[in-house]
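Board notes (copied after class):
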Amino acid sequence: MNIQRIRLIYFSATGTTQKVLRCIGETLAQELGVAIQEDDFTLPMARTHTVVCASDELALVGTPVYAGRVPNVLLPYLNGQVTGNGALAVPIVLFGNRNYDDALIELRNLLEASGFHTVGGAAFVGEHSFSYTLAAGRPDAADLQCAEEFARALATKLRALDDVPKQAVSVNGQTPIRPYYTPRDRQGNPVNILKVKPKVKDICDNCGVCAEVCPMGSIDRTDVRKYTGICIKCGACIKKCPKQARYYDDAGYLYHQHELEEGYTRRAEIQLFL
């Protein structure tokens, strides 16, 4: 296949998805001798624009995993404003050490339905948005080395392709797609944190960083203690606050956070598909 450009198309609230896609993309670009273009749709304004790929491009499309799936707030954008036009694509998901469940196959299916031909897939691990200890510091050096090796293997596959593949790449996951993962307490009752939002400490100086980085545009820029929309618990406002002034105190949220931190201490493995 004659690839003329690598497209990085991603949502990355805390930077982990971006880090992995850039590593894979830069290695691929070196291997294939082509340029890179980034389409970061993390912030609300970016999602007002369309992304239209050309048939001679390779798109690396990345999202985080929320509750074992592609975040539902991203589905309208991925379904309607990202078009493949016969381009090759690689779906890539980042999960926070628990599992990616059906997120990768869901993203693959979305891309295929939008006119892409998927030739690879990957599930990488990133520090969990709820935690500083769950998959702390990942993707780390070992993860990025794996990303480089994946890119080189992908380049080898692309050089050997004479035409677009007739079948979508095979990845882990179930069809039909399972429901979103639901946290439960010790009695088996669902823990609902959908409407929970971070609180703000008195040390906040209203610098506005949290409002600038909120992917939903839900923090009031004139008074960052106020919310004007939904919170998807992405962690951007907490992890990027220079004062560490934002926090959660909801009992259900904290229970779920601690259960994850205590139950998933092992180093989750990256999974690659070619």
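Comment from the instructor: The helical segments are 16-32, 75-80, 103-113, 141-160, 209-213, 236-239, 251-263. The longest strand covers residues 57-64.
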